[in-house]
Amino acid sequence: MAIRVLLVDDQPLLRTGFRMILEAEQDIAVVGEAGDGLQALDQVRALQPDVVLMDIRMPRMDGVEATRQITGPGRDGPAKVLVLTTFDLDEYVVEALRAGASGFLLKDAPANELVQAIRVVAAGEAMLAPSVTRRLLDKYADHLPSGDEPVPDALNTLTDREVEVLKLVARGLSNAEIAADLFVSETTVKTHVGHVLTKLGLRDRVQAAVYAYESGLVRPGAQ
């Protein structure tokens, strides 16, 4: 079945451009549009999309609050949120990830990246492009731990290999890339990622990446 997508942006021209790109794909169907967060909530309830392509800055209700209400606790719908941000990265992107977004994409990304991002998010994976993640972390480096602080107790519940996997997830690596880096199978990586999420009480890879940086386990600029 086609991936059902809801477009949420306060600029009609952008929505039209996204629609043209996505409707050219056989496995993607644009089921609706919204110009602000409140409209997005109504459309999600009415249309049950698989992926919501969500702008951040909008009138009435911004994308962060809309994301929180779409993906927050107690929500059992299928919708995943892919956040749209400008080239210099919106200051609310981190909040959107905390709120439950499955990743973020630059508004000026090539058409093929937009299509691939929607497919990745619809499949339940996180969209964490390393180059975009790096710019985001550089922007917020002053607000992240220096690495001198003690790590949270929860990290001590992870095995050494699980810590390695968490660090690579935070760098934006896919399961296949992590498997190649650690010389293990993708199935093994999936198992480790699952254990990390369970032990740390996290929802998905995006929250794991944010946790790794906020806890000081990984520092901006570190490899």
UniProtKB/TrEMBL annotation:
<keyword id="KW-0805">Transcription regulation</keyword>
<feature type="domain" description="HTH luxR-type">
    <location>
        <begin position="151"/>
        <end position="216"/>
    </location>
</feature>
<dbReference type="InterPro" id="IPR000792">
    <property type="entry name" value="Tscrpt_reg_LuxR_C"/>
</dbReference>
<dbReference type="GO" id="GO:0000160">
    <property type="term" value="P:phosphorelay signal transduction system"/>
</dbReference>
<dbReference type="GO" id="GO:0006355">
    <property type="term" value="P:regulation of DNA-templated transcription"/>
</dbReference>
<keyword id="KW-0804">Transcription</keyword>
<protein>
    <submittedName>
        <fullName>Response regulator transcription factor</fullName>
    </submittedName>
</protein>
<dbReference type="InterPro" id="IPR058245">
    <property type="entry name" value="NreC/VraR/RcsB-like_REC"/>
</dbReference>
<dbReference type="InterPro" id="IPR039420">
    <property type="entry name" value="WalR-like"/>
</dbReference>
<dbReference type="Pfam" id="PF00196">
    <property type="entry name" value="GerE"/>
</dbReference>
<dbReference type="InterPro" id="IPR001789">
    <property type="entry name" value="Sig_transdc_resp-reg_receiver"/>
</dbReference>
<feature type="modified residue" description="4-aspartylphosphate">
    <location>
        <position position="55"/>
    </location>
</feature>
<dbReference type="Pfam" id="PF00072">
    <property type="entry name" value="Response_reg"/>
</dbReference>
<dbReference type="InterPro" id="IPR016032">
    <property type="entry name" value="Sig_transdc_resp-reg_C-effctor"/>
</dbReference>
<keyword id="KW-0597">Phosphoprotein</keyword>
<dbReference type="GO" id="GO:0003677">
    <property type="term" value="F:DNA binding"/>
</dbReference>
<feature type="domain" description="Response regulatory">
    <location>
        <begin position="4"/>
        <end position="122"/>
    </location>
</feature>
<dbReference type="InterPro" id="IPR011006">
    <property type="entry name" value="CheY-like_superfamily"/>
</dbReference>
<keyword id="KW-0238">DNA-binding</keyword>
